[in-house]
Queue: 4 jobs
Job 1
Amino acid sequence: MIFEWLKNKVPVAVYVKKRMNDEILIVCAETLSMYYLNTTAAFFFNWADGKSTVGDIKEKFLQKYDVDEQELEKDFVDMIRDLQWKQILILE
C-alpha cells in the first residue's frame, strides 16, 4: 500500500505566505498561486514542519477527529499527491 511507503516520510511545507481564516488555510506558493485547503489538508499542512512524519501526523489527526483509519490513509495519499503537484509540499 502506498501509505506504508509514505508513513515514514517527513513532509515539509513550501510557501511564501500562509494565513488562517476560520478553518481555511490560504497558501501562496512561489508561483504566487493561492490555494484554499480543507480542514484535513490545513491540519496536515500545519504539521508539515520538517520534523513530524506522515505517520505522526496521521496519529495526531486520529486523536483529534473520529474518522476511519483506512479512509484517512487514502485521503492523506490523495492530499499529499495534490499538495506536491501544487508544489507547496515536499517529502524528505
Job 2
Amino acid sequence: MRIPCPYCGERDGAEFTYCGDASPVRPAADAGEAAFVDYVYMRSNPAGEISEHWYHGQGCRNWLIVKRNTRTHVISAAMLAKGSAP
C-alpha cells in the first residue's frame, strides 16, 4: 500500500504504523462510565471510506489522518492530524 504523506510524498505503507479509527470522539469527563465503555470498546466495522490514524515513524514522524476505503484499500486523502478534524 502507498500512503501519501503531506511532507514526504507518497511512501510505502511499511514506513507507517496503523493506529486505529480516527472517528471516535472522547466523551466529556462527567459523561459517566457507560459512555467511556462505549468509547473504548464499542467500535463499528464499516465497509467503505473511513478516517484512520497513521504514524509515519520511519519518515517525518508525524501523525496523519488517512481516508481509506476498507473494501478496496484505495486512499483518497491524507492530512496532518494536528489541527484537523476527521
Job 3
Amino acid sequence: MRSIIKIFGKLLAPTANRFLNLLKNPQAAQQSTQRQIFSRLLNSEYGRDLRIKAIEDWQQLPIVTYQDIEHLILKQIKSKNNILTSEKTIFYEKTSGSRGAAKSIPYTKSLRSSFNYMFCLWAHDLITNGLPFSTGKIYFCISPPIANLSDNSSDLSIGLQDDSEYLDRWLRWVLSPFLVLPPGIDRLLDVEEFKDALAKTLLKAEDLEIISIWNPSFLKVHLDYIQTHQIRLHAELKDRISSQRQALLLESQIPWPEIWSELKLISCWDSANAAEQANYLRSLFPSTTIQGKGLLATEAPMTIPFIAARGCVPLLNEVFFEFEDDRGQIYRLHELEIGSTYEIIISQKGGLYRYRIGDRIRVNHYYLNTPCLEFIGRTQTTSDLVGEKLHEDFVKDVLDNLQLEGTFFKSLIPVMQPAPHYILLLDRADRSTELIAQQLDEELRRSHHYRYARLLEQLLPARVLVSPQIPDLMTAYYLRLGRKWGDIKHQILVTQAIDVELLKQLEI
C-alpha cells in the first residue's frame, strides 16, 4: 500500500506544481478565475436580468446573501431550468443553516470538481510533505439518512451523504480500497443503528490512519458511544477483532491511541467555535496530527491547509474572492494586508456570484505572494430577543471567564417561555448550576444592552441546565430541522429562540 500511495502522490504532482505557480501571481490567477465565472453568469437568466454586458461591469453586480436569491434557487428547483448559471445543475446540497432553516445549494459538475481539485492538492501535500502513511485507510465523515427524513421537498435532489461524495467518480474509484465505511449505510435510518454500525466498523479498522470529519464533536459522540456500550460491543465483536483490542475495549477508560495505534491524522474544523473541541481531540490523541480543514463550506471550498505554508492558502483558481473591511471597502485577494480582518464575498462555479458566505478571516502572512487566511468566526452572529444584542465573540469571552473545567459542550440559547431569557446548556459542570447561573448573569451584564434589558426586566435571569444527554438532544433537534448530522455546528451562541417542545426535553 505504501508504494501505491507514493505513486498516487506522483500522479498528483503536476496538478500541485501548477497550483504552486499560481500562488506566485495571485492577481493574474484571480483575473482568470473571474473571467471563467463571469462567462457562466453572462449566459444565464440571472445575468440577462441584471443586464450585465462585460466583465468591467462586475462592480454593478449586487452583493447578496442566500435570502436575497432564495426565490431564484426555488424557482430553479421547481422549473428544472438553469437560472443562475449556464451550466446544468446536477443536484442540490443542504448546508447546515447555522442561523435558520437549512439552505439548498445548487451544484454543477464544475463546482464539484472544485472540491475534487482541493482534495487532490491536500492529498499531495500530505503525501509529499506530511506523514508516513503506510495503509492509507481513511474514514470520511458520514451523515446517516435519518438526517433528511424531515425534508418535505421530495422533488429536491439531495446529493451528498459523506465527504467522499464531494469527489469526482474517478477519484472515488481510486480511493475505494482505502475507504472505511459501515456496511449498508443507505439502509440505516435510525441514529442509534448508525452509531452502532459505525462503532463496530471503526473498532474493526485496526489499520485506520486518517479520520476526516467536519466538527470535532462528531468524533467525540462516537467515542462516547463506544465507551458506554463497551461490554456489548466486546461481546459482539469478539471473533472479529484481535485479542489485544478485546482487552483494550474492556478497560474502564478506553485508551483511544492504543485502539487506533496507526492513526496519524484527524482532519476537522479547528478554528473559532471548533477550536476548543479540536484541542480536546488533541488531548485524546496526543501523537496524532489534528489538522484544521481550512475554510470549507457547502457553498465552496475556499482555503486549503498547506504544510509548507504554515497556514491555509486560498483556492484562487476555483473561487473568485472579494473581501470587505469594517468600513465597507471592497478588496481583491492581492490587496489584503497582514493582520487585518475581512468578511469574505465569493463567486463560485455553481451559480453564486458576489455571495456573502458569512465568514470573517484574518490575514496571517503571505506564502508565495498569496495571503494565508485564518477563519476567525461568523459575521454578525448576534442574538437579540429584546434589544440586548449579544454577539458570539462576547459570549465566547463570557464562557471563557466562567472557567468551566472539564466541560465539553457549551451553548447559550435564547428562550421565549415563560418570558425572554437565556439558558446555558452544559454536558457537565464542576460546581452547582445556581452558582454558575449567578456568575453567568454577572458576566452577561458587562454588555450594556443586556444589563439595560435586565434592569428593565425585559429579560429574566439567565439559567443553567446540566446533563450528559444535552448534546444528543440538541443534535436531534437540528436533525429535525433538516440538517445533516456530520456537519451540525453546535454554536456557542444560538441566535434563534428554541421551541417549547425542545425546552421541555432539556428541562427533564
Job 4
Amino acid sequence: MAEPFATSLRRGRPLLWATGAGDDLTALLGWGERLRVDAFGPDRFATLASAFADFVAHRPDADPRDLVAFVTVTFSPDSQAASTLIVPRTLGRWSSGALHLDTDAEIPEPSAPLDDFDERDLERGTLTRQAFRHAVAEAVRRIGAGDLAKVVLARDLKASAPDPIDLNAVLARLQRANPQAWTFHVDGLIGASPEMLVRRRGLRVESQALAGSAAVTGDPDATDRAARALAASGKDHAEHAFAAQSISTKLRTLGTVEVSAPHVRRWPRIMHLATDITATLREPRSALDIATLLHPSAAVCGWPTEAAASVIAELEGFDRGRYAGPVGWMDATGDGEFAIALRCGQASDDRRAVRMFAGGGIVAGSDPSAELAETATKFLAMYEALSPVARP
C-alpha cells in the first residue's frame, strides 16, 4: 500500500529498523509477537540464538527471509535489563513510497498524531556533570599508570513528560534528522545509531568502527576546520585505532579481512573518525553469531576489554541496560544487520519518560571538560527528537 513512511509508523507501535531518505528510505516494521524471548547473564546471546533456531526449525516450509527476529542485547552480562528477541506476527517492508506486507494479515489503522510538541523536562542522571568529570580524570590517571589503554565512560539523563510520549513521532523525527543512521525501535529502546557493528549477506560481512569526534555546528567554515583538526588529531586517532583493531582482529578469526584508512564522516550534529572493515567468511556464521563475537568493541568499552569493563562498572556506577549493546535484526538464513545502540534512549513502560545515554572514549590526554562537552553533543539527537521545539 502506498503511503508516507510516517503513516506506516503510526500503525500501532511497530518494531522498527530504518535507514535512508526519500526514495532511498528502506525499513523493516513488525507488529505483534509470534515469539518473544528474554535472556539474562553471560549466556544471553546463546539463549536468544538457540530460541530463534528452534523457532525456525519448526517452520520448515516458511520462506526463511520472512522469518525475521528483532533483537536488542544488553551491554553487560550483569545487567538487570532483559536482552530480548521478538519475531513479529506481521512483517512489513517499506520502500519506494509503499508498505509491503509479508501476509494478508490486518495491521492497525494509522493513529492521529498526539499533541507532542512540548519541551521535555530533563532530570539529572546517575552522574552529575562534576561527577562525570571526576570519573574521566580518574580514568586518565589509571591509563597513565598503565592499568589500561582506553575506557569508554557514559552518563545518563531522563526526559520526562506528564502524558505518554508519542514514540512514533519521536522515531519519525529521528529518521528524518539522521538519514545516514539506523533508526530503531525494539521493546521500548529507540534511537538512531551511526555505527554498524555487523551487516551480513551470505559470506560477506561489513562493519564500521567509529571513535574520535567533533561537533558539527551551523557554521560551515568552523565545521570544516573542526573536521581538519579531527583528521589530524593524534589523541583521536589513538582512540580510534583501538576501536578499529578490536573489530578487525576478531573478524580475522572468521575469514579474510580488508580495512580502510580512517576518514571523517559527518552527521547533523557530530562527526567521527571512521574505518570501514569488510570480511569474507570461511564458513557461514549468522549475523547474531558475529555480533556475539564483536561485542563489546573498544568503541563502546575500551581496551583491554576486561580491564575497561571493570573500570566502567566502578566509575559509571549505573546499569547501562541495552545502551551500547547490539540492536538490529536477523532472518532465518542468518543474514541481518546489527548496529551498536548509540544516540538512544529506553522508554519507561508508561512512556512518560525516556532514559537517554551518551559516552566518550577516554585515552591518555583526554580532558574531562572536553569529554563532558562531547556527551552533551551526543545527547542532542535524542533530545531534539523528543523536544522538537529545541531546534527548528
